[in-house]
Amino acid sequence: MPVKNERTIVHPFTGEEITFVETYEETGGAYIVIEVYLPGGQSGPPLHHHEAFTEEFRVKQGMLEVTVEGEPERLGPDETLFIPTETKHAFRAFGDDPVVFEVRLTPGRRFEESMRISYGLLDDGRCTEDGMLENPEDLAFILHLQDTWIDDLPPELKQITFTEAETKEKLRSMKGYLRREQQDALTE
């Protein structure tokens, strides 16, 4: 996967960059903080919600549009927006200029692993021409790891579930995409 440094990964199709500012391990499992660089005209995931964690967005540069429960809200530098659990939302860079923003995910367990695996699979070409993961089970697994529930997801993908043992086994099979510390934790 394109990696700028140990903490920053780059989406091979959109150019989105995610920097892991504070990891789940570093905060003792309390939260994770990421910084996102989103090129102008690009969007994050489609309308979705999370059952197990909240998000707090804080814009550092540019304009971010976050749609919450169908209502768009534009955020500029130093503005924040809190997204509770179970709240449908989506975000995009507003306009042609890039946006840089931080997101605090509380608790954010396995979010970093999900993004590293997702970007790694895309970079390895395990995707369609438009940049979607080609294996439905891989997509379902990534969404499971990051507790993301996409509204328009096909019903057959919503039915794919993973037990904790299956999750650990699948993580082990994809450990090459993870940081060394995350790989080591899988053997414990």
How would you sum up this structure, described in words?
The structure is a single chain. The model has no long low-confidence stretch (mean pLDDT 91). The chain has two domains: 3-106, Jelly Rolls (Sandwich), CATH 2.60.120; 111-186, no CATH class. It is globular, with a radius of gyration of 16 Å. Helix 1 (111-123) packs antiparallel against helix 2. The chain is built from five helices and twelve strands. Helix content is 23%, strand content 31%.
**Which value, in Å, is the CA radius of gyration?**
16 Å
Q: Strand-residue fraction?
A: 25-35%
CATH fold-level name of the largest domain = Jelly Rolls
How would you write the strand order of the largest sheet? 1-2-3-4-11-6-9
- Under the CATH scheme, which architecture of the largest domain would be assigned? Sandwich
Total strand segments? 12
- What overall geometry do the principal axes of the alpha carbons give? globular
Number of domains: 2
Give the proportion of residues in helices. Answer: 10-25%
Distance between the termini: 26 Å
Secondary structural class: alpha+beta
Low-confidence stretches: none
List keywords for this structure.
188 residues, alpha+beta, seven-stranded antiparallel β-sheet, globular
Could you provide a short overview of the structure?
The chain is of the alpha+beta class and 188 residues long.
Topology:
Elements: E1 3-5, E2 8-10, E3 17-22, E4 32-38, E5 48-49, E6 54-61, E7 64-68, E8 71-75, E9 80-83, E10 89-93, E11 99-106, H1 111-123, H2 136-145, E12 149-150, H3 155-158, H4 164-173, H5 180-186
Antiparallel strand pairs: 1-2, 2-3, 3-4, 4-11, 5-12, 6-9, 6-11, 7-8, 7-10
